[in-house]
Design goal:
The structure holds three protein chains of three kinds. By secondary structure, chain A is an alpha/beta fold. Chain A has helices at about 50-55, 85-90, 100-105, 110-120, 125-140, 145-150, 160-170, 190-205, 215-225, 240-245, 250-260, 265-270, 300-305, and strands spanning about 5-20, 20-35, 40, 65-75, 75, 95, 175-180, 210-215, 225-230, 235-240, 310-315, 320. Chain A is built from 13 helices and twelve strands. In chain A, the strands form two sheets. Chain A has an eight-stranded mixed beta sheet with strand order 6-7-8-3-9-10-12-11, with helices on both faces. Chain A has a four-stranded antiparallel beta sheet with strand order 2-1-4-5, with helices on one face. In chain A, helix 4 (about 110-120) runs parallel beside helix 7 (about 160-170), helix 5 packs across helix 7 and helix 7 (about 160-170) runs parallel beside helix 8. In chain B, helix 7 (about 145-160) crosses helix 8, helix 9 (about 210-215) packs across helix 10 and helix 10 runs antiparallel to helix 12 (about 275-305). Chain C has one domain: MetI-like fold (Orthogonal Bundle), CATH 1.10.3720. In chain C, helix 1 (about 5-40) packs antiparallel against helix 12 (about 255-280), helix 3 crosses helix 10 (about 200-225) and helix 5 (about 130-145) packs antiparallel against helix 6. Classes of the chains: A alpha/beta, B mainly alpha, C mainly alpha. At the B-C interface, helix 1, helix 6, helix 7, helix 8 and helix 10 of B face helix 4, helix 5, helix 10, helix 11 and helix 12 of C.
Chain lengths: ~325, ~300, ~290
């Protein structure tokens, strides 16, 4: 284990200003990511994983704001940095790619220019040099005929190509951390695997750490070394990806794992229904009392309905937030 | 690109023909009243023979299609007829007045763009701020204000009370005569542009690609310069194009108010005096001009927005 | 409910304040204008046309003559009050005509399609190629001045937007399930159009109607100002301003009140229209927070 973790988040709280009241959307979130590590953040929509990522890169806008806790990058609390200090990290040391590649790119600017911007912004290159570097960047993400593609506009490219462009932009300056927020959700299944593979290879090559955010536990467990599961603004379990898949501790994680259709399960177990988790994700201002998962938990007891469980370290490694973890 | 341009220009031809036809139909409804309007200048009932001669001269007795063909053929060579009032060829009357009208319209538009767009930008970049509230209230007011009222008030204030500017007319053509009319005419397009710019910029600022730009580590200023402006321009250009039409209609009123010797005041005077050929000619010129501007804006659009395919 | 939808609800609350402002202020101004127009006979102090006493000519505003008097000695206040009746009548009636024409053409064009649609489209393009005020001028040239020709001119030149909206709505609505169901039940085309399609496109049409009324009031004032609409001695706000222009050095107050009346009425209609648009037609919001 290296000395100083790349990212260390402690007790992060993100508030939402709703009609005059401040409500925490994300609370008590702590995790660390080491250099070159792949870390996954999983949860249903509305659990707060995306805004946690936005907080890391400093892109939270009104009415969301960081309400407490620390975010340390290489040991330095980035909340204490000036605006320009934070800006120099963005894109340069911490980069992000988003879910919808079509809308994430400027429709009236050629993709080559959008990549070149990175070199002009952070590496002090001239536009001419930057455009040349952009062609090389495109080649790196395996876009065919990069010299020609550089002049294309986003609407002329397919979804997979656009995401490659996004990756090229993100990795252009050799950042230490790449945050990928649902990078393949909007893509065709066949393209998904290619993009994931590309990301994995490039990041391994450059030693870039990856924070992968997804609702797809299977995908994340495959790609990342460690996985954290979020529910209703809290991390409920964090384990090595093998362990979390084979022996999930938290009832929610178990529900997630069970709900995945498995190849060969029909041969092994006969025809069974897909298991779902009953109920819906609670709204931000209306989190249940006690453990936030208790209304939907098949193993809930009285203590679950009254007291919120604290984080407990597990013997085999990792942590879980449950009164009845298995 | 050239092929597209020529195709687009060709597309206006049916509209042009339709307008020509419409004008013809409109004014051929009143052959009888042409004569009666002529005799309306109070000189008493006209001699029957004179009436007959005029009818022949104007070709009013010929069947419709003959009149139409002669109308078209004359139009094709630029002959817009002869004014009833001044007996001058309408074409030369209009030609003399083209420049003042063009001056007025383009100056107003320029004013509207130069003041309205930045105002809209600033309002959008600080939504809910003082500039935003004030300029939006101002914008609605500007749109609701009758131009001739504003013109009168400005005239009273700046010309008659303060004496800084001349109160009407073209004078020697120097700038100070242009100021009041241009400002009066420019207020409502400015208001509309401010509103449209604000809406466009707000919409763009919340777009995904702006978030991407920010995630690249760009300062807000750069984000606006490199990403927001071009996209906003696309939305704003449509408004500018549409505004020209409204501007031309309202220029008529402003010209009359300030006794500005343009095509607009010619049109009004001709209508008041039932000088049909002059009315016809002015309207045709106005419409052609408007169509030309629209076509130009369309072509500009293609240049600016790469999403429009022009193959 | 996800974080994103909560965030957008919060942002939405801010423009609700603006919405209330628009509706309240706009509605009040418009209601005031209508009230004045309806009860002009009781609100006015004198007869606006007949009570002209040259001895009272060109009096500045005072307790006796609230807005002063004009060159003929007529009470400006009474004339402004009666002007409300005229201007609003023209505004409402001409917009009504515009809506009827626009809806009939647009709805049928969208619903039936084919050559009729092409024809209506061509006609609309033609109308849009001619600036409306200029077209109105042309028609007034043919018909001569006066109230009826004014109504005809304004009614015939401003229907294009309504037509476009009606057509677009018809096109998107006619594929809806309930329309197909009506057809299967044997409803006639006219019945389908009036009972199924029309009620669903009323929202945007009301918005355009309100804003259009503002435009019609402005247009009437402009035409009257030019001497082509309502002519003196009848008290149209526009023609009053035209007279005021001649007296601007001797009686500047003449220029203030009729214009103010036009301004407030149109402002009210514009604000009201904006507010209605935010409720009825959220996709084309012109203002956002």
């Amino acid at each position: 284990m290296s000395a100083v973790p790349l990212i260390e988040v402690e007790n992060l709280r993100i508030d939402l200003d709703a009609q005059g009241k401040r409500v925490p959307a994300v609370e008590g979130v702590s995790f660390r990511i080491d250099r070159g590590e792949t870390f996954g953040l999983v949860g249903e929509s509305g659990c707060g994983k995306s805004i946690t990522a936005l907080a890391l890169i400093g892109l939270l806008r009104r009415p969301l704001s960081i309400g407490g806790g620390t975010i340390k990058f290489e040991g330095q609390d980035i909340r204490k940095l000036s605006t320009s200090g934070r800006r120099s990290l963005r894109g340069n040391r911490i980069a992000m790619i988003f879910q919808e590649p079509m809308t994430a790119l400027n429709p009236v600017s050629p993709v080559g220019r959008q990549i070149a911007e990175m070199f002009v912004l952070h590496k002090g290159k001239s536009w001419r040099e930057a455009k040349q570097l952009a062609v090389e960047a495109l080649a790196q993400v395996r876009v065919p005929a990069p010299a020609r593609r550089v002049k294309d506009y986003p609407h002329q490219l397919s979804g997979g190509m656009r995401q490659r462009v996004m990756i090229a932009i993100a990795l252009a300056c050799g950042p230490d951390l790449l945050i990928a927020d649902e990078p393949t959700t909007a893509l065709d299944v066949t393209v998904q695997a290619e993009i994931i593979e590309l990301m994995r290879e490039l990041c391994a090559e450059k030693g870039t750490a990856v924070l992968m955010i997804s609702h797809d536990l299977g995908l994340v467990a495959n790609v990342c070394r460690r996985v954290a599961v979020m529910y209703a603004g809290r991390i409920v379990e964090e384990r090595n990806s093998d362990d979390i898949f084979r022996t999930p501790s938290h009832p929610y994680t178990r529900g997630l794992v069970r709900s995945l259709p498995r190849l060969g399960s029909r041969a092994a177990h006969g025809q069974t229904r897909l298991q779902e988790i009953k109920g819906v994700v609670p709204a931000i201002a209306h989190f249940p009392v006690g453990c936030r998962f208790n209304p939907r938990c098949p193993e809930a007891t009285d203590i679950c309905r009254q007291v919120e469980p604290a984080e407990e370290l597990l013997a085999a490694g990792g942590l879980v937030r449950c009164h009845h973890h298995g | 690109m050239l092929a597209f341009a020529s195709r687009r220009i060709l597309q206006t031809v049916p509209t042009v023909l339709a307008v020509v036809l419409l004008i013809f139909v409109l004014f051929s409804v009143i052959p009888g009243s042409i004569i009666s309007s002529l005799s309306d200048d109070g000189r008493g009932p006209m001699d029957v023979q004179v009436v007959e001669r005029m009818k022949k001269e104007l070709g009013l007795d010929d069947p419709v299609h003959v009149r139409f063909t002669s109308y078209i053929s004359r139009l094709a060579v630029g002959d817009l007829g002869t004014s009833f009032r001044t007996r001058e060829p309408v074409g030369s009357m209009i030609a003399k007045r083209m420049w003042p009208t063009l001056q007025l319209i383009f100056t107003s538009m320029l004013l509207a763009i130069v003041l309205g767009i930045p105002l809209g930008f600033i309002a959008a970049l600080r939504p809910g701020g003082i500039v935003d509230m004030a300029s939006m209230v101002g914008a609605v007011s500007g749109l609701s204000m009758p131009k001739f009222w504003l013109g009168l008030l400005l005239m009273y204030l700046f010309a008659l009370t303060l004496g800084w500017l001349p109160s009407f007319g073209y004078g020697d053509g120097s700038l100070k005569y242009l100021i009041l009319p241009a400002v009066t005419l420019g207020v409502s397009p400015m208001a509309l542009l401010a509103r449209t710019t604000r809406a466009a910029v707000l919409e763009i600022m919340t777009a995904d690609f702006v978030r991407t730009a920010r995630s690249k580590g760009m300062s807000e200023l750069r984000v606006v310069k490199w990403h927001v402006m071009r996209n906003a321009l696309v939305l704003i250009l449509t408004t500018i194009g549409l505004q020209f039409g409204a501007l031309m209609g309202q220029a008529v009123v402003v010209e009359k108010l300030f006794s500005w010797p343009g095509v607009g005041s010619l049109l009004v005077d001709s209508v008041l005096q039932r000088d049909i050929p002059a009315v016809q000619g002015s309207i045709l010129v106005a419409v052609f001009f408007f169509l030309a501007i629209n076509t130009l804006v369309d072509l500009l659009y293609v240049v600016i927005d790469p999403r429009i395919k022009y193959t | 409910m996800s974080t994103l939808s909560t965030v957008s609800t919060v942002l939405a609350a801010k423009w609700r304040v603006k919405l209330r402002f628009n509706l309240v202020v706009g509605g009040t101004l418009f209601a005031l204008a209508v009230f004045v127009g309806l009860f002009a006979d009781w609100l006015a102090h004198t007869d606006p046309v007949m009570d002209a006493n040259l001895l009272n000519a060109e009096e500045p505003p005072s307790w006796k003559w609230w807005f002063g008097t004009d060159a003929q000695g007529r009470d400006i206040y009474s004339r402004v009050v009666h002007g409300a009746r005229i201007s609003l009548t023209v505004g409402i009636v001409s917009q009504f005509i515009n809506s009827i024409i626009g809806i009939s053409l647009g709805l049928t064009a969208g619903y039936f399609g084919g050559w009729w649609d092409d024809f209506v489209n061509g006609l609309t393009n033609l109308m849009l190629a001619i600036p409306s005020l200029i077209f109105a001028l042309a028609i007034m040239a043919v018909l001569g001045p006066g109230l009826t020709s004014l109504l005809i001119a304004l009614g015939l030149t401003n229907w294009s937007f309504t037509c476009r909206i009606a057509r677009a709505s018809a096109l998107s609505l006619k594929t809806q399930g309930y329309v197909q169901a009506a057809k299967v039940l044997g409803y006639g085309d006219l019945r389908i159009m009036t009972t199924q399609l029309l009620p669903n496109m009323l929202g945007p049409i009301i918005v355009i109607g309100t804003l259009g009324m503002g435009g019609a009031v402005l247009a009437e004032a402009s035409l009257s100002f030019l001497g082509l609409g309502i002519r003196p001695p009848y008290p149209s706000w526009g023609s009053m301003l035209s007279e005021a222009r001649d007296q601007i050095t001797t009686a500047p107050w003449l220029s203030v009140f009729p214009g103010l009346a036009i301004f407030l009425t149109v402002l009210g209609l514009n604000l009201l229209g904006d507010g209605l648009r935010d409720i009825l037609d959220p996709q084309s919001r012109s203002t956002r927070v």
